[in-house]
Amino acid sequence: MEIEDVESVLRMLGVKRIKQTKDNFIHCNCFFAPYADEHASNYDQKPSMWVGVDGGTSWCECWTCGGNKRAGIKQPFLDAVERLNSLCLGRYSAAVKKAISCEKSTGRRKIRPVYLPQDHTADYTARYLKPALPREWLKAKGITQSETLEKFKIGVDVKQGLVLLPIINRAGLIVGAQARSVVNDTKAGKYFSIYDNTQKTHHLFGEHLLDFKVTRNKGGATVAKFQGKGIVVFEGPLDCMHAYEAGLRNCVAIMGSKVSPVQAELLGKWTAVAEDEDPKPVALVLDADQAGRTGSQKSLNQVFLDHAPAALVKGFSPPADPKTLTREQFDELLNGSEAWRRRPVKDLLAEMVRAGRGRRKK
């Protein structure tokens, strides 16, 4: 792609402040600027971007977001254009086609739709937090303390006989809610979402209660670091709430029987540590039934391996339904022998290298 082609694509994206330099660079305003999620840590109200061409390969770098929320990170220009198009629901498809036609490389992947969670806090608070909760039903599920119900902001839909378990992100916004029937706990007893635009595989129930320390770096951007010793992962929201009530902290639920790729990436990112620090494990405590055992094995052997290879993941098989375990039983389970274990890939590679050196010496 030539620098003139890059400038024509920028014009199609609506970028007006374009200045071409002598060294095959273009300095312009960042085309991600209107989107708050791309500039969440923005301290400059007018983020600017450099776009360059090196050997036919074009790339862009925003001083504020880098095009992918990380300041100072270069990314391919065509990838950035595709992401902007997906954010705008296809508004810039002509610019994408123009960029693809100018791109010399082959085998371009298809544009993946970007999931943008919506804030339902006001609607949920007004509609579902006022009615009285079915305390007896919650008690049967292992939830008895008012503090737990307030922490997780449990609501109720009286007309439909539903207990609502909100999905709250780390910013404290309700981006969705799982529902569970109180009237019929067999036929209609499974979880389902009350907001159609929520993708539960992109969230972790209870993540807003994880122990994070938020600071600001020299550039003014916010940096959040997980302070806990590890994260315990359950299947359902009720399992997570019962464990929290029993005294466990830093526990979440995947709202399913298998960890999704996005959830694995989040867990791997949050538990990441420096080389000289002790690893922070991700402990999977999924149900002891067939679905839970299969989900644990697939999560460890496939999902985490592909999407969070640096994570230390342990799988535990509970002796009974997690909603019935006491704090002592949780401690005994998590401190005992794990049923499955997957060490970080870097540790396995280092071990293979050491083993190879030992064989050569013989």
Give a quick precis of the structure.
With 362 residues, the protein is an alpha+beta fold.
What can you tell me about this protein's structure?
The longest helix is centred in the C-terminal third of the chain and has 18 residues, at 290-307. This protein has 2 domains: 3-102, no CATH class; 123-349, 3-Layer(aba) Sandwich (Dna Topoisomerase Vi A Subunit, Chain: A, domain 2). It has helices at residues 3-12, 77-87, 93-102, 121-128, 135-140, 146-151, 237-246, 261-270, 290-307, 327-335, 345-361, and strands spanning 18-20, 25-29, 48-54, 57-62, 75-76, 155-157, 162-168, 174-181, 192-193, 212-216, 222-226, 231-234, 251-253, 282-284, 313-315, 340-342. The chain has 11 helices and 16 strands. Helix 2 (77-87) packs antiparallel against helix 3 (93-102) and helix 8 crosses helix 9. Strands 1-2-3-4-5 form a 5-stranded antiparallel beta sheet. A 5-stranded mixed beta sheet has the order 13-12-14-15-16, with helices on both faces. It is globular. The chain is of the alpha+beta class. 32% of the residues lie in helices and 19% in strands.
